[in-house]
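Fig. S4 source data, part A: sequence.
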Amino acid sequence: MVARASTPPAFGRLLALWRSRRGATQLQLASTAGTTPRHLSFLETGRSRPGRELVLRLAAALDIPLRDRNAMLVAAGLAPEYPSLGLDDDRSASPLTAVLQRVLASHEPYPAWIYGTGLRILGANRAAARLFPDLAQMDPTAIIDLWFRPGPLRAMIENWPEVSTALLDTLRREVRQTADPRSTKLLRRAETLAQRASLAPTPPAADMPFACPRLRIGDRRVRTIGAVLRFDTAVEVTASELRVELMFPADEASAAFFRDAAAAG
């Protein structure tokens, strides 16, 4: 009889996968997480089962997103650690939604968007709707298509190559950090469309420290600077995945454009 190779349990496979994604050796991870390479090897092969504390230490050492930390706990036969409530859940709506609404409102007359993973737009303020109508209602794939295919949006962005290069870099970082299947699929589509558009990697202009859109709207040129707000201390899954993108004017002429747009309704 031929012996059949055993398959490592789910937790061991996940641990080895995340360790590989982070480029860490068993020795490096064991040192950071306060265990031994031998024990780590036993965990990955299924010869040992981890306790809750060790799973959380390993996940923290690998900087694994909260959603995936829960998955690792479940794979180890343990209960999830981090709640996943959603923005419309009564238990999270009071503090989190109030903060998000206040950020969006206080940023007027300048645009602001709330994103989840995979370029999902979860909210936007009025200025954002004025600048890019219907964008907040589009699914991520449609947004990528709109951005990379020839059309009015691409035509209004004077520095489309450098901003698109930055967008691809952002998507790649998200995929490396989260390994989210939706983000991975979105990145592949974006890279395919970028290749069709003959996009070459383009650094930001020398006079700007950020790769932010310069827009041509009618006879007006609008220069912008972007900033991203994150909830880095979040211990709830949805909040940990949120980011708020804030667009600021880069000069007085651009600020006047946004003020005029708000006044015109």
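Fig. S4 source data, part B ends here. Confidence is low (pLDDT under 50) at residues 1-6.
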